Amino acid sequence: MTAKKKLIFLAQMGAPGRYDPAIFANQPGGDNEILWFEHMLADLGLLEKIAYEGRRICYGEPLPHPSEGDAYVIGGSFHSVHDDLPWQHEIRAWLYAIRNADYPVPVFGVCGGHQLMSQVLGGTVEGLPGEAAIGTLPINLTEAGRDSYLFDGVVPRFNFGNEEHVSSAPPQAVVLATATDIPNCALDYGRGWISVQFHPEASDRCMTESWGPKAATIADHYVPTPDAPRLFQNFLKANGIL
What one-character-per-residue DSSP string does 9-45 give? Predict the structure, then answer.
C-alpha cells in the first residue's frame, strides 16, 4: 500500500497573552487552529486520503525539517509581521531554506502566512490605507486568477480579518486576485507556493469571535462561505498530494 502523503499545518495565531483564548470557547478544540483545520479536512473527506499534523510555532513547538511534510499550510496571526518575534524569524529562515532548496515543497500561506511568504521573497507589508478589512467580502480575479487551479469551483467571496496587507508583491509573484484596498489579495510565486490574504479555512462564526470585544458589533459582517475550503483541496490536488 502506498503511504499517504503528509500535510503539516504551521500555527502562528498568537503567542500566550496576545489574545484571550476564551473568545474561541465555542470552537472545536478551543483556540487550537490545528484542530480547526483538521475538522475542515474531515468535512472535505480528505483525512482518509492524507496524513495530517500541526505545530504551534508561536507556542515554541519546533519547525519540522522540510522533508517531514509533502506540503505545508502557514496560518494567520494576531501578530503583525513587523513584530519581529524570534519565532517569526525562525519561520522566515525556514521558508527561505525551503525556497532555495533543490526540491520544491508546496506551501500555502493564509493571512499572516501570506504576508510572511511575501516578505521572504521581497514583498512589502504595510497597514491598510483605510479601516481594517472585516467581513465576508468579494474578490476580483485577475486573468491569471481565472486561469488558476486555485479558484476552480469556488465562489470568489471570502472571510477577511486584517489590518495589514501586502502592498507590493515580490517581483516573481503573479497576482491572482485583488480586493478593495488590497491589490495583492492572492499570489502565486511558482514552485508550488501560493498565498491568500483572506481566510478560506475559517467559518463566519470563528471570524466573528476572533474580534473579541468587537464581535457583537460586527456579527452581521460575516456569512457562511461553504465552498471556500475547496481552495486547499485544489492546492493539494495541483501539487500531487491527493
Answer: EEE-S--TTSS-GGGGTTSTTTT-HHHHHHHHHHHTT
Q: What is the DSSP string of 86-138?
A: HHHHHHHHHHHHHHTSSS---EEEETHHHHHHHHHTT-EEEE-SSS-EEEEEE
Q: Which of 91, 101, 7 is nearest to 54 (CA)?
A: 7
* Torsions phi, psi for 194 (to 5 deg): -150, 150
- Cβ neighbors of 101 (< 8 A, separation 6 or more) are 66
* pTM, rounded to two decimals: 0.97
pLDDT single digits (tens) 195-236: 999 999 999 999 999 999 999 999 899 999 999 999 999 999
Tens digits of residue pLDDT in 35-52: 999 999 999 999 999 999
Q: How far apart are CA 74 and CA 228, in angstroms?
A: 17
Nearest Cα neighbor of 37 from 207, 237, 200 is 200
DSSP bridge pairs for 158: 137
